[in-house]
């Protein structure tokens, strides 16, 4: 084979460039696909946490209202409630993430939030005083207690 023909022949160059271009395009397509799936799972996780937070907040406000109602009904019929305790479990994590529960006194609200931005609030109405508290998930057993001397409701971890 003549060396001049070899230098002028550009068939090998087009094959090499074609291979490099196909490899680069494949890497870009795979990267975009992985990134889109990652963002999709994050948004699904946040939506699932928000929905679960709504359920937890509604359940907790229902429990607080139930204790307040029991105290008020007993007092309205001439009875006396010295102390009342309502024990209940609460999930230690939601979607494998920890969260905080902040119960405020004015206005009465339950604010649940996680570090990934999922957040929801629930309101409740009670006639008894409530001691505001912020708890961090981890403990699974809690107790709402009524104290006659302070005429207040407290939420404590067990």
Strand content: 25-35%
Tell me the total number of β-strands. Answer: 8
**What is the CA-CA span between the terminal residues?**
89 Å
Total domain count? 1
As an assembly, this protein is single chain
Assign an overall shape. rod-shaped
Main beta-sheet annotation: 4 strands, mixed
Strand order of the largest sheet: 1-7-8-5
Structural class: alpha+beta
How would you spell out the order of helices and strands? HHEEEEEEEE
Uncertain runs are none
What is the overall pLDDT average?
Answer: 88
Count of helical stretches: 2
Helix content: 40-55%
Question: If you compute it from the alpha carbons, what radius of gyration comes out, rounded to the nearest whole angstrom?
Answer: 30 Å
Q: How does this model look, in words?
A:
The structure is a single chain. The protein has 158 residues and is of the alpha+beta class. The chain has one domain. It is built from two helices and eight strands. The protein has a four-stranded mixed beta sheet, covered by helices on one side. A four-stranded antiparallel beta sheet has the order 4-3-2-6, with helices on one face. The longest helix is centred in the N-terminal third of the chain and has 66 residues, at 11-76.
Features:
158 residues, four-stranded mixed beta sheet, 8 strands
Topology record:
Layout: H1 3-8, H2 11-76, E1 83-89, E2 99-104, E3 109-114, E4 119-123, E5 129-130, E6 133-136, E7 141-147, E8 152-157
Parallel strand pairs: 5-8
Antiparallel strand pairs: 1-7, 2-3, 2-6, 3-4, 7-8
